[in-house]
Structures are given as structure tokens and as C-alpha cells.
Amino acid sequence: MDSYRPRIGTPVESLDTPCLLIDLDALEHNFRFVAETYRDAECKMREHAKNIKTPIIAHKQIRAGGTVNGVCTAKVSEAEVMVEGGISDILITSQVVTRDKLERVCGISRVADVKVAIDSTGPLKALSDAACDFGTTVGVIIEVDTSMRRAGVRSPEHGVELAKLATELPGIAFKGVMSHQAVSGDIDRETRFIEGRRYMDICLEVRNAIVAAGIPVEIVSTGETWTVDVAAEVEGVTEVQGGTYALMCTSSDYMEDFRYAARTLSTVISRPSSNVAVGDVGYRALAAPGGVLPTVEDMPEIGVATLEPEHIVLRSEGDMPLDVGDQFMLLSAQQDILVNRWDEFIAVRNGKVEAVWPILARGCYH
Q1: What is the model's pLDDT at position 147?
Q2: Of 137, 156, 248, 337, whose CB neighbour count within 10 A is largest?
Q3: Structural domain of residue 105, as residue ranges?
Q4: Which CATH number does the domain housing residue 199 bear?
Q5: Given the DSSP bridges, would you call strands 239-240 and 219-222 parallel, antiparallel or unpaired?
Q6: What is the pLDDT of residue 255?
Q7: 250 found inside a domain
Q8: Are residues 16 and 30 in the same domain?
Q9: SS3 string of the chain?
């Protein structure tokens, strides 16, 4: 998207569209909920930067409370942006394997507390070599596969093996274990707690085996938005990797304690028939993960018929209530994809622009 910076105080109805909005009242509500949830808990939040890609938003959660005073990132490049943005506690949740990226990890470890997820000996040894060459120490977290069937150790024995190696290698500080798990569908609270505890127990089983082998475990990093409240009640879990909760999306709308903070503002540019309207935003700027289309906010009678590169086609059950020139808000099914397609958030409160925040980690794929 082209960079767009409206003046502070601009009314929402006067904004150029399409644009990506953050409702500050909703965002701050979500951050206060996290702060209250973890105020007296052993577990704390480690917000996932892949969902926000903007250091200032992470700082707002850290200032609100209930966190480890740091974030996790999916990529080395995201970690670099967060460190440059003043965040000094970083967990990179993807294993890093190439020498150039390992050197970049070692570079930021000189100015920040950096930890990297690992699940195999080769990358662990390569990280040790790079850290020794740089004269630094990098933390490692053993990833445990609980449900995703991609990265992570599959047994406590493998976890113990890697933990022992991590304690022996120079330039490495063994920190603990982590896991990530997903759930699909519109699930109720009872199901969330049953499934969340079951997955966390798999991660804790590896942690317990490592402790039984005589190796201290400082960090158990697990969970996500759908287990924010679950993790606070599971003994041994020290942090949650929450991401979606900050901005929210329609695929997680069963988490009713959180409010929608991110919206895409669009304008109707055509009314080709009585029940069809065309908006000025398309899939280049929106997210439709797995074909799940955006939702028109507060207009249940309107559905998204098609999403084209630069346009969205809306269809209503009866006469289209939107006319040419009318604005409408769209809610995404997955906001991390959405955020990565924009240069800035336009932060609004009481219908007016309060701030414009550049999305500094946009496009950090490497």
C-alpha cells in the first residue's frame, strides 16, 4: 500500500480509503484484560509480534502490565525490528538454520536478551559456533510438538537429549521449552480448557523430564489467544505467546473478553444493481485465509460476494443499504496476514485520528 499519513484530528469519515484503522479504546481494553488476568499469576504474556508488527503496540501492552516485558517473533527480521524499537527481551519461535541468519541473531544478542526455538542438534551446534565467533551468548528454548505436526520434538527423551547438549555447548544458555497449538471452529469455554490443558500437559511432560535429568528449566512458553485464561491456571506455565487477542479477528470471535481493534475502512464506488455494491479495497490489502472472506461490520444482511485484487463486491439479502460514497468497515478472519499488507495503522479514538503508526516489520519474511 502507498504510505498515507492523515493529520491528527481528522474525522474517520474524512479519511482517504482504503485504510487500516486501530480503535484505541478496543486495543487498550484488550491490553487491560491481559494485565488483569496475569496480575497475580505465575504466567505472563509474551505478545507475538507477527500479529502487530509495530513496536509501539508491543510497548503499550508492556506498559499496561501482565507481561514478561518482551515479545516473541516468527522471524529474525521481526526480532531485529523489535530490538531496534527498544524491546530487549525476544523469543524467536522459528528455528534458525542458515549461517547468515544465525549471525544476525548473535548481532542482536549483544544488545538484547535473545532466545531461539530449536528442535534438532544441527541448528543448535551451528548457533553455538556462531555465538562463539561473535563472543556472545544466545538463549535456546526447545520446541515441543503438541498438535501442529510441523516443528518440535516428539518425545520427552528427545527433549532431554537436546537440553543436555545445550548445557554443554559454549555460547548457549538453555532456558526452557515452548509449544504452539491450534484449534479450529467456534469452540466453547469448556472445550478450550480441556483441549488447552491437554496440549500444555504435553509440553510440561517434556519440561518435567528435563528437570528430572537435573537440568533447571526457567521458561515454559506455550498457549495463544484461545488459551489466555487457561494458561493462567496451569501450574508450571510461565508465559503465553498471545497474538490475535491484541487486534482480534472473526475466526476468534468466541473469545468474547476481547474486542475488535483492527478494521479496514472502505468506500462504495459503484452500485451496479439494487442489491450489489462495489468497494475500493481488494485482496491486495485484505486477508482471506483459507478462502474465509472478510465480514462487513454491523451489517449482517450484507455478505462479501467476491474479493478481487483492488475491489470487493458486496451483496445484500434485499436492497443494498449502502450507496455510492458510503463508507463501511471490514473485519478480517486473520489479522497477521492483514497487517503485513499495510504501511501504517491509523489509530482512532472517538471517531478521530489520534496517531499514525508505521508498521515497521511489514515484509519481514527473512
Answers
A1: 81
A2: 248
A3: 24-244
A4: 3.20.20.10
A5: parallel
A6: 95
A7: no
A8: no
A9: CCCCCCCCCCEHHHCCCCEEEEEHHHHHHHHHHHHHHCCCCCCEEEEEHHHCCCHHHHHHHHHHCCEEEEEEECCHHHHHHHHHCCCCEEEECCCCCCHHHHHHHHHHHCCCEEEEEECCHHHHHHHHHHHHHHCCCEEEEEEEECCCCCCCECCHHHHHHHHHHHHHCCCEEEEEEEEECCCCCCCCHHHHHHHHHHHHHHHHHHHHHHHHCCCCCCEEEECCHHHHHHHCCCCCCCEECCCHHHCCCHHHCCCCCCCCCEEEEEEEEEEEECCEEEECCCCCCCCCHHHCCCEECCCCCEEEEEECCCCEEEEECCCCCCCCCCEEEEECCCHHHHHCCCCEEEEEECCEEEEEEECCCCCCCC
Verdict on whether the full-model pTM lies above 0.85? yes
* Alpha-carbon distances of 14 from 36, 159, 265, 310, rounded to whole Å: 36, 56, 11, 21
Same domain, 231 and 336: no
Residue at a domain's end among 244, 272, 289: 244
Q: How far apart are CA 50 and CA 61, in angstroms?
A: 15
Distances (CA, A) of 93 to 27, 72, 160: 24, 7, 19
* pLDDT at res. 2: 58
Cell of 305: 460476494
Is 317 in the same domain as 178? no
Indicate whether 211 belongs to any domain. yes
Q: Give tens-digit pLDDT for 270-302.
A: 999 999 999 999 999 998 888 899 999 999 999
| Cα–Cα dist 18/305, whole Å | 18
- Please report, for residues 235, 268, 279, the alpha-carbon distance to residue 273 in angstroms, rounded to integers and kept in the order given: 58, 13, 14
Domain co-membership, 16 together with 34 = no
Rounded alpha-carbon distances, angstroms, from residue 179 to 13, 239, 315, 363: 43, 11, 41, 25
> 321: pLDDT confidence band, cut at 50, 70 and 90?
very high
Same-domain status, 189 and 209: yes
